[in-house]
Amino acid sequence: MNEWRSDWDQKMARPPFKERRFTADMMEDVEKRLENVRKKRNRRGRVRSAIIIVPVMLLVFGAGSIWIGDQTAHSPKQVTPSPAIQGGGAFQSSFEPGAGGDYDWWSSSDHETKQGNDRTIVTLGIAFMKRELGVWGGPTPDIWEHPEVKAPLERYDVSSPWVYEMYVDQIRTDEMQTVYQLRLRLRDSIPMVYEEMIDVTIQNETHRISLIEHRNKDETGIPLEEYEPQS
Predict the structure, then answer these.
(1) What do you get for the CA distance between the two ends of the chain, in Å?
(2) Degrees, nearest 5: CA angle 137-194-152
């Protein structure tokens, strides 16, 4: 507590105090009040800081968690077929690697029991040799995810050269899709033989073709008498 100052008596004698004296008890009471005010201000400062800091921390960590979760939920899933020749995934094909042949082979009763994606490949093989892919209009099998998928097959939907044999060289599958690597043999009236490779991607859920990619195109061909088949 501060000591009493001599000039306080003179000040206390002036209006509006009118001879009232500022006693030691009054001074002590004032100091207690000042101390209480300081404590209240300190508490308010801490509360105010907490009110500001806590929401900011919740916002930062909460938004970070939401962002990470959102990135995880929306990250595009990379679908990479298994490099295995056969199997690996939800669908198991009944084709042996290298299986295939001409129209009679694909249209035989042995393949009437084919199911799922294999059934789609049988239908595609028959459509190849009958030239009924429907790229230019006309008959087309109901095996496409959407009509644009068959656009790369326009070279096979013409009168010459025509596909006369198709073979299943490889099958790669995962949980979402199955990729058939098909080897096509074409002939024309000269006669020349052409051999090309395509990848046909089929969705396991719908059994429809969603993508067709050329692995190689044969623009020159080989004379029929010189051609030695690979299988």
Answers:
(1) 110
(2) 35
Residue 198 CB neighbour total at 10 angstroms: 19
- Give the integer Cα–Cα distance in Å for 39 and 172: 75
- Tell me: the pLDDT tens digits for 107-163? 999 898 899 999 999 999 999 999 999 998 888 999 999 999 999 999 898 888 999
pTM of the model: 0.61
Q: Which residues contact 91 (CB under 8 A, 6 or more apart)?
A: 116, 117, 173, 178, 204
Q: What confidence tier does 85 reach under pLDDT thresholds 50, 70, 90?
A: very low
Task: Note whether 38 and 32 are within 8 A (CB).
Answer: no
3-state secondary structure the chain: CCCCCHHHHHHHCCCCCCCCCCCHHHHHHHHHHHHHHHHHHHHHHHHHHHHHHHHHHHHHHHHHHHHHHHHHHHCCCCCCCCCCCCCCCCCCCCCCCCEEECHHHHCCHHHCCCCHHHHHHHHHHHHHHHCCCCCCCCCCCCCECCHHHHHHHHHHCCCCCEEEEEEEEEEEECCCEEEEEEEEEEECCCCEEEEEEEEEEEECCCCCEEEEEEEECCCCCEEHHHCCCCC
